[in-house]
Amino acid sequence: MTIFHSLGVMAVLMVLYAVLLVSCEKKIIFHPSKFPEGYWDPASMGLEVQDINFQSKDGKKLHGWFVGSPQARATLLWFHGNAGNLSHRLDNIQRLLPLNLNIFIFDYRGYGKSEGEPDEEGIYLDSLAAYNRILEIEGVSVDSLFLFGRSLGGICAVETALHKPARGLILESVFTSASDMSRKISPLIPLGWAIRSKLDAVNKVPDITLPKLFLHGNRDEIVPFDLGKKLYDAAADPKFFYTIEGAGHNDTYIMGGRDYYKALDEFITETLKIPMTSQKI
Q: Could you tell me the pTM of the whole model?
């Protein structure tokens, strides 16, 4: 076998690999767990939740949980990551309760009890529907609404903040774009041109001028730390970056410990002092 033949075989294999990745794009990006998979007994963890049913603009029936706090000073609209469903975040929700926040977490289409199948356009519609629905709940105001997105959910939070007002934006373990992530998945084969899903946050954050907190684990094995910093660098002021020492991708709220929750608390506290009329939204 000549070197040219070997290179030809390698080229063909690389092309086939690229075609396979692109054809399986949605399965690579989205890993939903549908009901009944998950942990659907929040009362067993001492959590009282209210089922919230609503619809996206294209008619998909969606489901969320509202966890109210009697002393709530703000509301967190939670855009979760690409795997599991809202029920997999119960432990995290419980740990956030001392911050005195209402929490509304919802499932995108195809996740949990929400119908349909996820794609980029669909999860954006679902995110905007969740935003509209949360403001219908008694005691919830845009003046004290924080958009919280983790990983893929951060892309949805950015898209929502681009179109809707809020008090602040919190982005944890969030990447810049699908193109940048494709280089991590396939460093030898440039696939950015072929990926239909853009999941582009890096070109949107310069236009979002409400206060922003970026958090990222410095041992993140899924979304490289440098992509989190790249997203932060591209963002408009005011902005703050917090490194979660020793944290990977899925253990931020555990590894971060007391200092992690202190960073969240201080950002929310200080942002609430800023009149929204002074924000360019």
A: 0.90
